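In the design runs reported in the main text, the only information available to the sequence generator was the tokenized backbone. The following block is the verbatim input for one such run; it is reproduced so that readers can re-run the procedure and compare outputs position by position.
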């Protein structure tokens, strides 16, 4: 239950505070944003929004070592933004089927002011 505020400048603030998510939800959101605060992870996330790839292909596509890419993928997986599926001896990574991943994918398309490559392929 929210504390009573010392000043009541906005009569709706108590109602708003009653609907505020729990601290854990804010921590989860901060963790997701923190993952995308790194340009390399953002690039990997964007790539996986549009394709399913193994570590070797991702590393070659962005010009980084497999070890570095694996580290970034681990962090993105921990935040449930990407998922991995075993195919033989490889793990193929793709966008997670979560509301957060979908929302971030759409947000990036708006920020980059581009049409999603997947939409172009589907037509």
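Verbatim output:
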């Amino acid at each position: 239950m929210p504390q009573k505020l010392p000043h009541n400048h906005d009569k709706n603030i108590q109602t708003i505070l009653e609907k505020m998510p729990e601290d854990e939800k804010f921590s989860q959101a901060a963790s997701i944003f923190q993952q995308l605060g790194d340009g390399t992870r953002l690039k990997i996330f964007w790539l996986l929004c549009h394709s399913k790839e193994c570590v070797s292909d991702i590393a070659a596509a962005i010009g980084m070592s497999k070890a570095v890419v694996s580290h970034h993928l681990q962090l993105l997986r921990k935040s449930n933004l990407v998922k991995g599926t075993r195919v033989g001896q490889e793990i193929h990574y793709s966008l997670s089927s979560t509301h957060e991943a979908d929302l971030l994918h759409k947000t990036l398309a708006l920020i980059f002011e581009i049409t999603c490559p997947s939409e172009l392929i589907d037509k």
